[in-house]
Design a protein that fits this description.
alpha/beta; Beta-Lactamase; five-stranded antiparallel beta sheet; 26 helices; 16% strand
Length: 667
């Protein structure tokens, strides 16, 4: 304990002379006295010199309400140990302002004499050396008793104070216990320090709870707003929580589902049981889920939920309707329609009539049969019908029946399950009917479909249901069928090569697309469009066009129709000399056709046709000679390495061997 007489003498000497007897004063107190003297603190003042006004105090108490609420129970516990001994417990903020007091009424009344009240400032520069102010200055616990106080009016008090730090290491306030100086004891400071440690722990708990609430709020917002359906189950498989997307998908309210076993929604799914009982997660399993009206074809994934000890506490089931997945697949795999009726060029009456009928077909869901020669734009019409129909937001899936081997046609149309046949993909694969559900299925070259698959197709169209190969589950599909053929299906029916019932089922609306030779007046319009599109794509600027070119194009039958015209224009742009399109650059078949017709009609003489043919032959010879020299050069550079030369020329080895033989090049 401090020698009161010696300390009193040292205090008086320091106050009057500024000379400090270091052997009579604790270093921590001596340093505080020096700070107070430097700050011109009046040693004879009556305690705190500054008290907050009522509005300022109210604002401060509101700002520190969380700290007060946490600290108050600990203040009560500390006081209960010293009740009746003249002590009070005080809480200040980080700036030394008193914000809460608790203790003996007599002692609190004495505190009024030194402004030891809420709102008063007990910084050292305001009240001299004291528990609150000195603990703030030191940022550590301190006890100040009797004459250790810088101000004489407080010499009858003892103060034990310790700073309170928050979770971020920032000082949040000071807890102090004050009483008569004769009751000073080191244990008092120990009690305060212990209480502060408990308060800091509670502050950490509160901060963690606050962080958990934020995380929970964020997760709950995600849970309720995510587009995927989610069902949370406990370790018994009992549904605990259902998000709005799952409610909408299953057409059941969370109130009706919570408390049910998961098997009442998804029947007999082994992987769900495995997740619940062994904690093994799974992904992308196809199921039929019971909804309010009918079964929903879904993909589900399950994620086990475990506690901090690794014990399984349940899981989360993620639900996605198959149609949603298919739409995404179709979108990114190009299964969507790009053309509309505005993309169909042609002012001829035959084209306008085809567009008129197709526009009417787009207003309903009836099946459409597009008939026309190759290259007349059947798929363009099919896409335009889709894009003007109510199904425009759904997928547009195309299948060329002539390009699929007959043994694979069934799996392409209807899909298959895992293990259905040798080479089947793991997990199975949906067919074109499933991928097109909600949209349009375009079957090109329908006339090449085998009789066996025609029956399966007819049944799928009639029943609007399919069964995957190797499976027995019926999958509902909502598909609009548009077919195309370059053959006469009517003739195929008469020959017995095409089912009559399927023919009439497909031919609800029939549209005949005219060949280009039937609307040659549209060639200038088509030429202008294709020239602009191709020039832009190839970044070739065509500045001049031979006036004989368009008449030559119109004087040809175009067996390949619009597609052939497009290819001819692209070829001419690629080989154009001096950025000019010349009639003489047309393919031989077109020039020959024009020459023949011109001779018959007497519109030109034979010498021009011969001249054109000669010029073309010379070009061919020049190109052949250039190619021959290139092969010889590359063979020499590679030391006769056929594979390397083929790679550099961008051709196959077989093609290179044929050219070597053609040009009689020695190896």
């Amino acid at each position: 304990m401090v020698n009161t007489q010696r300390l009193a003498g040292a205090w008086e000497k320091f106050i009057k002379t500024g000379i400090l007897d270091a052997d009579k004063v604790r270093p921590v107190i001596a340093e505080s006295w020096q700070r107070c003297r430097k700050a011109d603190v009046n040693p004879y003042c009556s305690g705190s010199r500054q008290v907050l006004k009522e509005p300022e105090l109210t604002q401060l108490l509101n700002r520190k309400k969380d700290l007060i609420a946490i600290t108050r129970p600990f203040m009560e516990n500390v006081y209960n140990f010293v009740a009746g001994s003249g002590f009070i417990v005080i809480l200040s903020d980080e700036n030394g302002n008193i914000i809460e007091t608790l203790g003996d009424k007599h002692t609190q009344k004495m505190g009024l004499e030194i402004n030891l009240i809420p709102g008063s400032s007990w910084l050292e520069e305001e009240a001299g050396t004291n528990g609150v102010g000195t603990a703030l200055a030191l940022a550590k616990p301190v006890q100040v008793s009797g004459e250790e106080h810088y101000c004489q009016k407080i010499h009858t008090w003892t103060c034990s104070a310790a700073p309170i730090f928050d979770c971020n290491g920032q000082m949040a306030g000071i807890l102090q216990m004050s009483g008569p100086s004769y009751a000073s004891h080191l244990h008092t400071l120990g009690m305060v320090v212990a209480a502060v440690k408990a308060i800091e722990e509670q502050l950490r708990v509160q901060q963690k709870n606050r962080e958990l609430k934020v995380v929970y709020s964020r997760m709950n917002n995600i849970f309720n707003t995510m587009s995927d359906g989610v069902i949370i189950v406990d370790s018994r498989g009992i549904i605990q929580q259902v998000n709005p997307s799952a409610e909408g998908l299953l057409e059941k309210s969370s109130h009706n589902m919570e408390g049910l076993h998961l098997e009442e929604v998804f029947q007999n799914i082994p992987r769900i049981k495995e997740m619940i009982y062994s904690g093994k997660s799974f992904s992308n399993t196809e199921v039929l889920a019971e909804s309010g009206k009918s079964n929903i074809h879904c993909l589900i994934s399950g994620k086990a939920i475990q506690d901090d000890r690794g014990f399984n506490t349940g899981g989360a089931i993620i639900i996605n309707p198959i149609n949603k997945i298919k739409k995404l697949v179709n979108r990114f795999s190009g299964a969507e329609a790009r053309f509309s009726f505005t993309d169909i060029l042609g002012k001829a009456p035959v084209i306008q009539e085809a567009v008129r009928v197709a526009s009417l077909a787009a207003e309903n869901d009836s099946n459409v049969l597009l008939e026309g020669e190759s290259g007349t734009g059947k798929e363009v019409f099919a896409q335009a019908i889709h894009n003007q129909s109510r199904r425009q937001k759904g997928p547009f899936v195309a299948l060329n029946c002539a390009a699929i081997p007959r043994e694979l046609m069934g799996s392409e149309l209807f899909g298959y399950v895992e293990g259905a046949f040798t080479g089947a993909y793991r997990g199975g694969r949906p067919g074109k009917f499933e991928l097109a559900s909600g949209g349009t299925l375009f079957l090109d070259e329908i006339g090449d479909m085998t009789m066996g698959k025609q029956g399966s197709l007819l049944r799928a169209i009639q029943e609007r249901k399919i069964v995957r190969i190797g499976d027995n589950k019926v999958i509902p599909v909502d598909v609009r069928i548009i077919c195309a053929t370059n053959k006469s299906l009517h003739a195929a029916v008469e020959k017995g090569n095409f089912r009559e019932d399927l023919y009439y089922r497909l031919k609800v609306i029939s549209i005949n697309l005219p060949p280009l030779r039937k609307h040659l007046e549209d060639i200038p319009l088509l030429f202008e469009y294709f020239l602009e599109e191709i020039s832009k794509r190839l970044q070739i600027n065509i500045k001049k066009i031979d006036p004989d070119l368009i008449p030559a194009l119109k004087n040809y039958d175009w067996p390949g129709n619009v597609r052939e015209l497009q290819n001819v224009i692209e070829r001419m742009v690629c080989i154009a000399r001096e950025n000019t399109l010349r009639a003489s650059d047309l393919p031989v078949e077109i020039l020959s056709h024009n020459s023949f017709k011109e001779q018959d009609s007497g519109k030109t003489n034979n010498s021009r046709a011969i001249s054109i043919r000669n010029e073309r032959e010379k070009k061919k010879q020049d190109l052949a000679e250039i190619e021959q020299q290139e092969i010889i050069k590359l063979l020499a550079e590679s030391g006769g390495n056929i594979s390397q030369v083929a790679r550099e020329m961008g051709i196959s080895r077989n093609t290179l061997y044929r050219k070597i033989k053609l040009y009689n090049i020695a190896l």
